[in-house]
Design a protein that fits this description.
single chain; 166 residues; mainly beta; Immunoglobulin-like; 5-stranded mixed beta sheet; 4-stranded antiparallel beta sheet; 1 helix; disordered C terminus
Length: 166
Amino acid sequence: MLAVGDSTKLEIIFSTKKYKSRISKRPTIQTNEGPPDKHVQIIAHVVARPDSTYPVLIKPYKLDLTQFGDKVRDEMTFKITNVSDQELKTTMIQFPKDLFEVDLPKSIGVGESAEAKVKLTKEAVKSDFEKSFTIEFDDQMASRFTVPVKRTLRAARQQAASSAKP
């Protein structure tokens, strides 16, 4: 329950599933404030071939920090390549601050590549999650790219299951 005049964050997850091209969704938010219901609109351009995006290519386009053994895997680098005809400045739009930090280059020159890094927080090292972060580039379209980040703890689960057995 939320008190009158208070506020909270609301997370809406949009899974692209097998969508391709431009897609628009309008989830409904119902409150006890009375009618009418509130709507937000999500507009996405789902790219079927992540190796052909513009103005940048992000490789890998999905970041998987799954931990298979005892060695802690708490960071991952990825490459951003500018395939446009202008220098691009980067701006972080959104990321789950409680799970990870994203270190981005300030700008990327024409035809150049730059390395970026995702680093987990201490709390996130112990958890499973599927989240994402969104970057904006200062081209004419103010292009935004959302990069999925996944983490699963395989070794910890297997050890816990085997130690629980008599």
